[in-house]
Write a structure and sequence with these properties.
The structure holds two protein chains of two kinds.
Chain A: H1 9-26, E1 30-35, E2 40-45, H2 52-72, E3 80-83, E4 88-94, E5 99-106, H3 111-135
Antiparallel strand pairs in A: 1-2, 1-5, 3-4, 4-5
Helix pairs in contact in A: 1-3
Chain B: E1 3-5, E2 10-18, H1 25-35, E3 47-50, E4 56-65, E5 73-80, H2 88-95, E6 100-106, H3 112-128, E7 138-143, H4 153-160, E8 169-171, H5 180-198
Parallel strand pairs in B: 2-5, 2-6, 6-7, 7-8
Antiparallel strand pairs in B: 1-2, 3-4, 4-5
The chains are: A alpha+beta, B alpha/beta.
Chain lengths: ~160, ~200
Amino acid sequence: MGTLPQLIEEDIQRLDDALRELLEKSDATTALVIDKGGFLIIGQGDTRQFDLTTIAALASGAYMANQTIANLVHETNFNSVYQQGEKHSMFVVCIDDNCLLAVIFKAAVSVGVVKYFSGPTVEQIADQLRNAQDRDPGAGLDLSVLNMADTSELFKKKA
Amino acid sequence: MAIINQATKELQVKIVYYGPAMGGKTTNLVQVHDHVQTAAGNKGKLVSLATSSDRTLFFDFLPIEAMSIKGFKTKFQLYTVPGQVIYNTTRQLVLRGVDGIVFVADSQYEKMSENVESFTNLEENLKSLKLNMSDIPYVLQFNKRDLPNIAPMEYMEFLLNNRDVQVPSFSSTAHKCEGVFETLNMITRMLLHKFVSQGTPQYA
């Protein structure tokens, strides 16, 4: 399984910019970059209205489940999922081997517009992730500030 | 694999509760959700994708944040898999990106073959993701110790932990929240020590 690069501030800034531009152009509500394992990497737009952590976990699960179904029916060109709603809809599209872009938009917004503007955004994000990977493919984790001294009880039970 | 975001000083880790059907995986998450001490806002909602009879269909999901780790905002995402044999494809999907595993075994004698079958299935599913048990920190939890027809701990150790490198194991009665936090604390500690000592990149 491939691994994503470590992201530095510059990467996060570029990803933020790409998502903001997508939201402006498409009039969508929220855009997320999600790891296929279910982690939320970054979110832009209206991030208070929705539980983005849970949406990330469920959207990646739904995408992966649909991809498996596509494989079972011999569909070789699967790369997106569209969930149509009465208030909000969601479009999830593959960025690369590890990541997905999820766009939440009001039902009044055309899915065609979201799909159209998502294309360049996906490329921008994929490029940035590639750049990050190329910058230092063997970079170690800098967890030096992680204080391991007091982790004997990470989670405590309520008294 | 864990997401480590140096820009935002955030660490996200995925722990999957695996094991035979009706073994207590979902109960573990429910107990953690109900009893964990957190600062306001550090505990997410428990999401269960279950059938009408409360059997896990896809997965249960609980995001929580550890309070005591300084330096990084450390978020743990706890998942369960559906235990029923027919849902193997779903289990493979949930295992994607896993960092640590809690194997929840059912201590009742008649469930021993299901425990072994599920453990073997876990090994096979990890292989399909190009992983193996020696790469992934895991712990064993022998659940339902309050029932009358249970196998001795030593017997379960022999069945499930009889390897070159033995892993920590815990007895538990998940519905009474006994052994639940001990198990969770051990797997999280093992994971953090692995990240710190390994020093090789996972991602983001």
